[in-house]
């Protein structure tokens, strides 16, 4: 009994659980026959007499032991109830942490996993999940510590523990081990793939830096030149043009792979420690000389980061850089715009780079990048490329919600209304991006509820005569796709506008572009169930006869939409049923 008490109060979860199980086993044994109970009681009293009671009668000892077991039973039940409550809370916090992890918010994920562990210290998944989040933030010591705890709680989790312990092994050994584990445990494919990629990048970094060190020791002229230029830039009190010229020369020197490594190993990313350089880069309004210096910095970072993921990570780790990117996109200098967009594109065009970007606050980026649709030069295309890359990321979708209704929707509506005055190919891509963002239910609901957005879409469709330019037709096609996505929602705005929406789509059924016709039928198939009035409107326009025509001559997708449109009409209208029987021979 003394051992049981000690086990129940142990801080070690495994020991505590074992003691609880032993206690429950003994309590169950109390339910046997009375003779067996007395025999067991006598045995326990005899065995534990020196521990429980060294004086008094055997009857008193039995009474004391019985009372103790009753108290122990009550305590065990209370502990079990507390554990069940704590396990429920820990599981809920684990799911919240998993959601944050999937969205790329690793700091929040760590916070939720830690709160779960406060509730249930022996929950192994919380340790390993938190270790994965630490790994994402490159906090390897903490990841190792969590894995060690996970192994203590559940030793068979040695594969997960090995993954993080290998972070301090040689990258080659880590990569080979990850690949072997991927072969033996395919169910952990996503985790292992990321680990293989981490090991590959670490292996590449070490290889590059070892090669650069050998080249520097051999008297490399490039290494000497980069070191000298960085020293000149770090010297205070020089004119802006002096720094601009040195940065331009440095950009040329680091354009090669070895130059990028020399730049990194010589602390090139600390260039903003120079107050004059930082002042020009972070200025709210810039003189021509400051604009030139800022452009030179952007060119330097593009040269240093092109195809170099380690350098990309180091650049965005500089607080002044990550905080200033949005401000540079809002500056009054077209050249700064172009070079900032080009720099951001280095990150957005691949998965790891997007993850680096999404560690920043991008809540303003959708509005800022959409505004470039008004530009008539390559800036519009560059901005749309970046938006297209980011739109599929859940974390970006989540960040967009903060300013969507107040900042993004008014701008988007304005772009729709002014479709003939903006770069139409870029506008079509912007509409497609908004359609992709509709994968987020919250953003889709905000768009679908906006009467101004619907009216902007209808106004754009109104301006689609037969002789419209190819760019305008792209906009019409994109807007119809957006409308189909928004019609996944059901609200009063859609019900109010169902008649004009149906009328615009009915008018497009005679368009020469088959893609536009198919999407117009798709919109009809989704908007008609929202309004009997809309059904009557399209019936007057001969929709039944038109749909039968498309069923005979259209493709598979067109036929599918046509059947759904007919189903919506015949469900709510006797007239539609009669027309279908009349025209369908």
UniProtKB/TrEMBL annotation:
Signal peptide per UniProt: none
Residues spanning the membrane: none
Alphabetized InterPro entries for the sequence: ARM-like, ARM-type_fold, TPR-like_helical_dom_sf, TPR_rpt, TTC12
Ranges of compositional bias, category Polar residues: 45-55
Region Disordered, annotated ranges: 1-55
UniProt KW Hydrolase keyword: no
GO CC terms, sorted: centrosome; cytoplasm
UniProt KW keywords: TPR repeat
Keyword DNA-binding: no
Biased composition (Basic and acidic residues): 14-34
TPR repeat start and end residues: 124-157
UniProt xrefs under SUPFAM superfamilies: ARM repeat, TPR-like
GO biological process: axonemal dynein complex assembly; sperm axoneme assembly
Protein name as catalogued: TTC12 protein
Originating organism: Catharus fuscescens
Lineage of origin: Eukaryota, Metazoa, Chordata, Craniata, Vertebrata
